[in-house]
Amino acid sequence: MTVQMMIELPSVRGAEPILQAIHIYKTQLRLTVKWQRSRVAEYEQRYGVDSARFLREMTAEDLAGGESEYAEWVAEARQLEELEDELTELEHARVHLPWISPCD
Fold it and tell me: Where are the alpha helices (DSSP H) in 2-103?
């Protein structure tokens, strides 16, 4: 399913700042995903288990840090999933500007 969003602006000049803001946000999101991956990777390396398996199979008793470390890893892994989903959505977004021909 696709969703279309329309933004009405008083002039063509207003489109550029919006496109720049989206570009900047995607750049920041990519950096945040990279940082979040490194945080999750610390847990994965420490326990020799990827986060998908950890979320499916492990409990707090399986971790040296117990309940607190379990909760932290769950939060970090889920945050990473959410960030990656958001980035994927934005990476697949298309912009249609009717005043620019498709060949431009």
Answer: 15-47, 51-57, 66-91
